[in-house]
């Protein structure tokens, strides 16, 4: 007979604990190494405006202790910005950017740990390790080298699910307090994580609903009782929707004005479809099917808690994703917002681990999950051909890469996904029918294949990310920190005109901390942060208030978008970059006079040199001697046109310069495929000149193969000099 001592479990030594933790730590280390290599290859931020905004806020916190965007006070936005702030104390921007990438990798990959601990409530160590590895290997882990909130929010959401489950299982003060605290802080990590509180509430409701007492009570309900219950639920939903509509314009827009358009369901399904594609269909299929109890399964308190939390999390984050995507479709663009749904991946992988370990599944639930999965993979835009990397849905990256290498189209991708779904359903059914050894082998095979799909998708997403960063790198040109190198962090203004693509502007702002204000003379530059144009007097003085005598802001340096922006001051440096149509253009760094003034500027010229529908105007504000203005006009590849060049005084309208009283007209003709050069004598005073092209053209109306739908006048260039040369 065994003694009491023999029956007691052996206490774990520190060696035992290390042996138990080693597989989990090993997976974390290897994944972190892979993602760190991907981060190392990423040359520059490129997802503007997201990365630029978080850079602005975190840099401001680091420098002043307060959040700001382009010098204007702003809320700190997210605890993610607070996390980055100490890193920006590193003086070298390149070193700071590299450090941020590697810290982000370590933080985002840490989703492994809360996912594992949550999985251990319902499955053994090996299946839990599979679930944790899956959650840490989804394609969206490619975000780990980006300056975006997901790098902190994703593992935080997994931690929230785990602590909520602990609270519902243990029901101790400490566990409940931990769940309440993590839910309270969650919106500060990312606004969407307010859904953790909703998940907690749903979890409580489902725990009560699945309790033995309520089950026994429901067993006595009549059809009338069920009808009354459904009426009460519908009334609660209507009441909640009315409350939200009163407090949220986005909710009101989606539910009251656009409900019949089914935007919430359509865009929510798109996000779910991209998620299913990214994780290889099987985890999505089994993760949903696992929410419904299987026949003859062994029920445990941990399983009941997991199902309550998982069901609540999937519902709450699913609703949020559909609502946000629907809202964006009305104010911005129709997007596949998988990015907002990735937070349920730990729950889906744990559900998959549960099915694979127990080899049991509710067949009705499996059928419903398969039908929904088929519906969304057929209906989701896969963006296989039209984009290199869809930044809001990295789950689509695998087929985007296949298209680049193997010319796989949308139809091929959909049939591949359908085949994977059919095989997954058949394998799952076989799993419940095979003998133990064969079923174990099949479960292991399915798990390995699911992880392989995820890792391949993540590598594809990271490759696309690296390619874009390397492609955009020459746009800025080395050295990236050329402004800081000369200004030594003194306040610098970036001023442009005729901006068609804001990426060339966002890049120097990202890499140079001295650029504290960004603007354009014609409002073609936007956020993040204030970008309003300065007011300009007829003498070229810049002011940012209502009164020219009180300029509001005074800068030591300015980056001017030469040649259409020409500041008064000392030329310090010139930096070449790629502008419109990959044309080599130049920025000039000027040490400004004070008060800050413009010598000259021109309006109405696109980055590729064409004037637009409203023609172009040149202003010369500093002109103490008479000189010559050379106007060069051409229309390469198109017919000629008459042009009327007018010169006159500088006037103002709404605190902006305009052509005032006209003093001279010059008529000329731009020859077909040729060039017209007109010389104009200019007075020893500020003046303005405009070139009005009579016969405008729209390229894609002349050549259907052209994608240019702009209304154009001519290629135009202005140059002033003292002598005619």
What this model shows, in words?
This protein has 725 residues and is an alpha+beta fold. The chain folds into three domains: 20-216 and 246-471, no CATH class; 482-598, no CATH class; 616-721, Jelly Rolls (Sandwich), CATH 2.60.120. 50% of the residues lie in helices and 16% in strands. The chain is built from 24 helices and 18 strands. The longest helix is centred in the middle third of the chain and has 41 residues, at 436-476. It is elongated, with a radius of gyration of 31 Å. The chain starts with a helix and ends with a strand. The model is unreliable at 1-6 (pLDDT under 50).
Secondary structure blueprint with pairings:
Blueprint: H1 4-7, H2 14-41, H3 50-64, E1 68-69, E2 72-73, H4 79-84, H5 93-109, H6 112-119, H7 125-135, H8 150-170, H9 173-189, H10 195-209, H11 212-219, H12 223-247, H13 249-257, H14 263-278, H15 282-289, H16 301-331, H17 345-358, H18 363-379, H19 397-406, H20 410-431, H21 436-476, H22 482-487, E3 492-496, H23 503-511, E4 515-520, E5 535-536, E6 542-543, E7 557-562, E8 565-567, E9 569-578, E10 584-592, E11 598-603, E12 616-620, E13 627-634, E14 641-653, E15 656-670, E16 675-682, E17 687-693, H24 699-702, E18 715-721
Parallel strand pairs: 3-4, 3-7
Antiparallel strand pairs: 1-2, 5-6, 7-10, 8-11, 9-10, 11-12, 12-17, 13-16, 13-18, 14-15, 14-17
Helix pairs in contact: 2-5, 2-21, 5-8, 6-7, 6-8, 7-17, 8-9, 8-10, 8-16, 9-10, 10-16, 12-13, 13-16, 14-16, 14-18, 15-17, 15-18, 18-20, 19-21, 20-21
């Amino acid at each position: 007979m065994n003694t009491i001592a023999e029956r007691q479990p052996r206490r774990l030594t520190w060696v035992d604990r290390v042996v138990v933790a080693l597989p989990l730590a090993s997976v974390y280390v290897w994944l972190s190494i892979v993602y760190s290599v991907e981060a190392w290859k990423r040359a520059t931020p490129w997802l503007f405006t997201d990365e630029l905004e978080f850079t602005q806020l975190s840099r401001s916190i680091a420098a002043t202790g307060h959040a700001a965007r382009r010098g204007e006070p702003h809320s700190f936005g997210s605890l993610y910005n607070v996390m980055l702030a100490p890193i920006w104390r590193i003086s070298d921007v390149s070193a700071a950017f590299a450090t941020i990438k590697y810290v982000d990798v370590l933080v985002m990959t840490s989703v492994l740990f809360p996912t594992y601990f949550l999985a251990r409530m319902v499955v053994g160590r090996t299946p839990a390790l599979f679930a944790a590895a899956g959650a840490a290997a989804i394609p969206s882990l490619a975000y780990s080298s980006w300056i975006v909130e997901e790098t902190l929010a994703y593992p935080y959401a997994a931690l929230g699910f785990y602590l909520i489950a602990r609270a519902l299982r243990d029901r101790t003060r400490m566990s409940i307090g931990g769940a309440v605290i993590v839910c309270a802080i969650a919106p500060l990590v990312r606004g969407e994580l307010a859904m953790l509180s909703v998940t907690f509430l749903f979890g409580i409701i489902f725990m009560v609903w699945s309790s033995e007492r309520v089950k026994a009570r429901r067993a006595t309900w009549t059809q009338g009782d069920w009808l009354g219950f459904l009426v009460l639920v519908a009334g609660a939903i209507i009441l909640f929707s009315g409350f939200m509509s009163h407090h949220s314009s986005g909710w009101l827009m989606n539910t009251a004005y656009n409900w019949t358009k089914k935007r919430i369901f359509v865009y929510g399904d798109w996000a779910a479809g991209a998620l299913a594609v990214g994780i290889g269909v099987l985890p999505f299929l089994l993760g949903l099917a696992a929410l419904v109890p299987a026949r003859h399964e062994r029920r445990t308190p941990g399983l009941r808690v997991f199902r309550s939390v998982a069901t609540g999390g999937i519902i709450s984050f699913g609703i949020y994703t559909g609502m946000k995507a629907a809202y964006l479709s009305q104010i911005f663009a129709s997007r596949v917002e998988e990015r907002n749904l990735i937070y349920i991946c730990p729950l889906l992988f744990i559900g998959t681990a549960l099915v694979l370990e127990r080899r049991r599944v509710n067949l009705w639930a499996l059928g419903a999950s398969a039908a929904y999965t088929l519906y969304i993979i057929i209906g989701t835009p896969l963006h296989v051909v039209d984009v290199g990397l869809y930044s809001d849905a990295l789950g689509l990256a695998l087929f985007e890469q296949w298209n680049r290498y193997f010319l796989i189209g949308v139809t091929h991708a959909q049939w591949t996904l359908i085949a994977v779904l059919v095989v997954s359903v058949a394998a799952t059914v076989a799993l419940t029918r095979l003998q133990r050894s064969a079923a174990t082998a099949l479960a292991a095979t399915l798990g390995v294949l699911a992880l392989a799909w995820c890792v391949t998708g993540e590598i594809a997403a990271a490759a696309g990310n690296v390619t874009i960063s390397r492609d955009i790198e020459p746009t800025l040109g080395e050295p990236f920190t050329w402004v800081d190198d000369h200004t030594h962090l003194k306040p610098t203004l970036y001023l442009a005109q005729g901006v068609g693509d804001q990426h060339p502007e966002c890049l120097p702002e990202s890499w140079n901390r001295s650029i504290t204000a960004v603007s354009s003379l014609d409002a073609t530059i936007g956020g993040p942060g204030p970008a309003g144009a300065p007011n300009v007097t007829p003498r070229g003085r810049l002011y940012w208030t209502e009164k020219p005598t009180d300029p509001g802001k005074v800068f030591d340096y300015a980056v001017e978008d030469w040649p259409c922006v020409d500041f008064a001051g000392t030329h310090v440096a010139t930096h070449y970059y790629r502008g419109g149509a990959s044309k080599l253009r130049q920025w000039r760094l000027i040490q400004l006079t004070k008060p800050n003034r413009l010598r000259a500027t021109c309006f109405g010229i696109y980055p590729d040199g064409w004037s637009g529908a409203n023609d172009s105007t040149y202003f010369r504000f500093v002109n103490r001697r008479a000189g010559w203005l050379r106007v060069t006009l051409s229309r390469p590849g198109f017919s000629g046109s008459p042009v009327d060049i007018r010169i006159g005084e500088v006037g103002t309208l709404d605190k902006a310069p305009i052509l005032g009283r006209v003093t001279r007209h010059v008529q000329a003709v731009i020859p077909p495929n040729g060039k017209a050069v007109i010389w104009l004598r200019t007075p020893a005073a500020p003046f303005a000149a405009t070139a009005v092209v009579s016969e405008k053209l729209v390229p894609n109306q002349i050549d259907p193969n052209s994608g240019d739908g702009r209304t154009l006048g001519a290629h135009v260039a202005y140059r002033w000099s003292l002598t005619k040369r």
